[in-house]
């Protein structure tokens, strides 16, 4: 009798475990489906095609779907400060080139006050004004002209919405190298925690920074890296709806959902090596306006490095003249 009772109890526990396992799998499936639906909805909202089909700097069409020997590509990151009553300027301009064969990414920050020809305007101006004159298309064309490389994709982030994205991931940690105050917020030197309300003035400040715009670029990279790190953590899984909603409201890109999946699948190892590049120049006052004048030799050096990373040297293209702000 005791043996029979033990067998019955054993079978009962097996049933209970089986039911719990089924519920766990079912919940996991529903959760995964809910996450996928929220993600695809956010990506659909973020998707913003542009008029041109391909860059004039690259005659061939690249593809991200190749599993073997996928093509290198480039992305222009635009951080746009669109305040009320302002057409907006791209105060953050970062070019990423991705090379899967070299397993590396190069990240170039372009100073917002760089004097260069604004393509479509026929005159030299600060490069961040290109967005105010012609939105993403003119920004892309101007950066292509300056660097003599194709820009395959763009990602635009509304800086006003930065606080929503930071709050969505539950705030971030950054290492602040400068004690300063901005817009009623004080930032002590050392490792600090930023919520959304604090993140925006943290990345906007440049007047108190002895490194000017270059110091601000470094804080922008810190916040972007902090968002990526926190967003990818296990703890953020419970906040996925807030995160995707914030991204959908504040990010625009011409990348499709399928292209994002291809990048994640075929290019993810490149993220293991990120090299940061900078274009340096001297501040000069022209016509009562301060610009950053980047020497031709500096531009040529950056052009060569990015072209090599994009494997443009394999096409047999001759060097293009260096654009100047004169």
From TrEMBL:
**Protein's cellular compartments:** Cell membrane
Q: Which residues lie on this side of the membrane: Extracellular?
A: 34-326
> What Gene3D superfamilies does UniProt report for this protein, alphabetically?
LCP protein
Bilayer topology reads: Single-pass type II membrane protein
Example of a GO cellular component annotation carried by this entry: plasma membrane
Report the record's Gene Ontology biological process terms: cell wall assembly
Top-level taxon of origin: Bacteria
Q: What does this protein do?
A: May catalyze the final step in cell wall teichoic acid biosynthesis, the transfer of the anionic cell wall polymers (APs) from their lipid-linked precursor to the cell wall peptidoglycan (PG).
Question: Which HAMAP family does this entry report, sorted A to Z?
Answer: TagU_transferase (MF_01140)
Output this protein's name. Polyisoprenyl-teichoic acid--peptidoglycan teichoic acid transferase TagU
Gene (UniProt): tagU
């Amino acid at each position: 009798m005791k043996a029979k009772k033990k067998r019955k109890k054993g079978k009962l526990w097996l049933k209970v475990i089986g039911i719990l396992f089924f519920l766990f799998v079912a919940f996991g499936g529903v959760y995964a489906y809910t996450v996928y639906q929220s993600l695809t909805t956010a990506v659909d909202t973020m998707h913003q095609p542009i008029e041109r089909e391909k860059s004039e700097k690259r005659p061939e069409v690249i593809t991200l779907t190749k599993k073997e020997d996928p093509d290198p590509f480039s992305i222009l990151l635009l951080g746009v400060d669109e305040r009320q009553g302002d057409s907006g300027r791209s105060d953050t301009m970062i070019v990423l080139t991705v090379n899967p064969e070299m397993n590396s990414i190069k990240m170039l920050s372009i100073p917002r006050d760089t004097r260069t020809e604004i393509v479509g305007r026929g005159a030299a101006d600060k490069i961040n004004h290109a967005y105010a004159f012609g939105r993403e298309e003119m920004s892309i064309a101007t950066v292509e002209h300056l660097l003599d490389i194709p820009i395959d994709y763009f990602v635009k982030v509304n800086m006003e919405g930065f606080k929503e994205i930071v709050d969505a991931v539950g705030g971030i940690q950054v290492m602040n190298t400068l004690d300063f105050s901005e817009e009623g917020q004080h930032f002590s030197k050392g490792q600090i925690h930023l919520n959304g309300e604090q993140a925006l003035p943290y990345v906007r400040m440049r007047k108190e920074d002895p490194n000017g715009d270059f110091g601000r670029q470094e804080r922008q990279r810190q916040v972007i890296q902090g968002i990526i790190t926190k967003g990818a953590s296990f703890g953020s899984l419970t906040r996925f709806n807030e995160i995707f909603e914030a991204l959908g409201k504040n990010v625009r890109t011409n990348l499709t959902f399928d292209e994002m999946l291809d990048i994640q699948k075929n290019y993810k190892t490149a993220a293991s090596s990120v090299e940061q590049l900078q274009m340096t120049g001297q501040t000069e006052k022209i016509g009562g306006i301060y610009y950053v004048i980047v020497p031709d030799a500096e531009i040529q050096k950056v052009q060569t490095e990015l072209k090599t990373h994009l494997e443009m040297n394999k096409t047999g293209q001759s060097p293009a003249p260096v654009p100047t702000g004169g």
